[in-house]
Write a structure and sequence with these properties.
Radius of gyration: 24 Å
Structural class: mainly alpha
Number of helices: 20
Number of domains: 1
Oligomer: single chain
Strand content: under 5%
Shape: globular
Order of helices and strands: HHHHHHHHHHHHHHHHHHHH
Number of strands: 0
């Protein structure tokens, strides 16, 4: 461990001296580092072709069998809803809720619903679309993107709790702490750059439902493409985006295999064990966390297979799911690359989300009696036996989507009705 710390200090000193030297030649240190990594990656592919092929096969299978069928319908639907003005309609209708609670425009409600029902990285995709359309500012987009990227609910309720732990009752704890931590993060992020002068919003004159319908009518007048063209463009754009996501998944699957073979994951686990030793976690947990830094599915699976106590396994899984993995971070960076949205607030938010999710998991476990709740009993299913049906996955996700959408719209209407009643009562008293 002492050698690792000395190596990190020496690397920092070397970077400072190298940056000073490269500045004279106008060479970017980050691009030079990226070039060195690519050369090392190509060399590894040549020397370890079997490991590269196995990693690429795993990444391709996960993308084709899980990500592509589960995200494609939501990508197409989000494109159509944007172009047909439904998001603008919701933006006016839910502005009175989203603005005071999360300090984002009302159209952020659509991002929130999609992000909480379909999983990463669709929240970033829709946020980038809102920013391109001028429906939110850069700071609002950064707030919105940071707390609307979640793991899929069915991934947590089925793949993790049943498929990995073999206990469906754990899904409530895993998903509940995950979403609660992200909602807490959303409430905290409303203070992020609160003094920013740039702001978007809709005209506040007239009844809110009337204004929403006028906004919907305006979008319909401006959108001249026929319905067939709209659908074709939405499908083409969605498939292009998913191909890009698939490329990132395959690339990171190969990188993880190479790093594991080279012993880098074990070295990271040693560093985590040194830094997090006061927490009293079992040593096996750190290998899972180190793998989860790069990819959540592999990290969560390793955490569920460790001989550590169930509470420590759940804390590790919560941290890994909240962090989302560098693969998701790279996907998000690619989706916002052509906008002015910055990636670093998203990365910092993921770190905060991981800390909150792990803390909430510990507190909920200590507050409730695990034996009485049935969480610590013998698993009701053998781990790994759960299969996710494509049809049931999308059908159940669509149900959750409709329920959350209906709750938000009903809340917006009730809020506006309450304001109208209070305004009339004030006029009567005056």
């Amino acid at each position: 461990m002492t050698l690792i710390i000395l190596f990190i200090c020496a690397a920092a000193i070397f970077r400072l001296n190298l940056e000073r030297y490269l500045r004279d030649f106008r060479i970017s240190f980050s691009k030079l580092l990226c070039s060195a990594f690519v050369i090392f990656f190509v060399f590894s592919m040549i020397t370890q072709p079997k490991i590269v092929f196995e990693g690429a096969s795993v990444g391709l299978k996960a993308w084709w069998e899980i990500v592509f069928p589960s995200l494609l319908p939501f990508f197409i639907a989000s494109e159509l809803l944007m172009n047909l003005g439904i998001v603008h309609f919701m933006g006016v209708l839910l502005e009175p809720i989203m603005r005071p609670v999360f300090n984002v425009p009302g159209c952020g409600s659509f991002v929130m619903v999609v992000g909480f029902t379909s999983g990463c990285p669709i929240g970033s995709l829709v946020t980038a679309n809102l920013r391109r359309s001028g429906m939110c500012t850069r700071v609002e987009a950064e707030r919105l993107m940071s707390f609307t990227n979640n793991s899929s609910p069915l991934f947590m309720l089925v793949a993790v709790s049943v498929g990995m732990f073999g206990n469906p009752k754990l899904g409530v704890l895993i998903a509940g702490t995950h979403y609660l931590a992200n909602l807490t993060l959303g409430l905290l992020l409303r203070f992020y750059k609160k003094g920013d002068q740039e702001r978007t919003g809709y005209e506040n004159k007239g009844q809110i439902l009337t204004r929403a319908l006028k906004e919907l009518s305006r979008i319909h007048r401006e959108e001249n493409r026929p319905l067939g063209k709209l659908m074709g463009d939405a499908i083409g754009s969605s498939i292009t985006t998913l191909l890009k996501i698939g490329g990132f998944m395959i690339l990171f699957a190969v990188i993880i295999r190479l790093l594991t073979h080279a012993g880098f994951i074990n070295a990271m686990a040693s560093i985590f064990a040194f830094l997090l030793s006061p927490l009293g976690l079992e040593p096996e947990i750190y290998n899972a966390i180190a793998s989860g830094i790069f990819e959540i599915t592999l990290g969560a699976k390793l955490a569920s297979e460790t001989p550590a106590p169930l509470l420590q396994q759940l804390i590790a899984v919560s941290v890994i799911l909240a962090w989302s993995g560098l693969s998701i971070h790279a996907q998000v960076a690619s989706l916002i690359a052509d906008t002015d949205i910055r990636i670093y607030p998203f990365i910092m938010a993921r770190f905060a989300h991981a800390c909150l999710a792990g803390t909430y998991t510990y507190l909920f476990w200590k507050y409730y009696d695990p034996a009485a709740a049935g969480w610590s009993n013998i698993p009701t299913l053998a781990p790994g036996t759960a299969e996710i049906s494509w049809w049931s996955y999308n059908l159940n996700t669509f149900k959750i989507f409709l329920i959350i959408m209906a709750i938000l719209i009903l809340a917006g209407l009730l809020y506006q009705l309450m304001l109208t009643v209070l305004k009339k009562l004030r006029n009567l008293t005056n």
